[in-house]
Amino acid sequence: MLPTLEEARKELLIAGEMNPGPWVKHSENVGLAAYNIAHLIPELDENKAHIVGLLHDIGRRVGVVNIPKHVYEGYLFCMKNGWDEAARICMTHSYIGMKDEFNYSPQTHEETEIKKYILSLEEADLYDKLIQMCDALATDYGFVILEKRFVDVTRRYGIMEDYIKGWDATFAIKEMFESKMGCSIYDVLPDIGRTTLLNPKPWTPPTSDKQ
Length: 211
Fold this sequence. Notes:
Helix content: 55-70%
Number of strands: 2
Shape: globular
Number of helices: 10
Radius of gyration: 16 Å
Mean pLDDT: 92
Distance between the termini: 31 Å
Low-confidence stretches: none
Strand order of the largest sheet: 1-2
């Protein structure tokens, strides 16, 4: 199940009041990118794509900023509301390698639950892949080509193990969607040429769980 688009927008607005930050505009742009791409792909429901894009980072409503915590908090929030389809995207959007991401023993409760959930899935579906890709296309100030986004994230967080594998997987998803669309994904992202050339100072995440 899913909330309506109006409900999703309302929850994102409330979440932004609870924990202000650029993540809110980023989420709006992920939703817009997902809608525009899904609109050209018959297998996808553009309304569902928009909603799950808006809510993919909703776990940040509680103020947490690291990946496992916001992923799991988003899942719990959506499941509490009966939105299992959005809850799935909260779990999968940060783990583009899916099962291959978990070749280690989790250190926290959140990581343990995320691993258990993702290992229970047969594979990433089109919505998982769509939001994983759109997450890499959308900033708070608009849309950028993948290379620009990868550099932005690396400047903020540093080089992490297996980054290149994640980049390669994202490019493969891009090519798959473009084959279905019959055009470049960049053709449907408003003002991407202008925003890609912008050079804002990278946002620095808070050092604690609260902003």
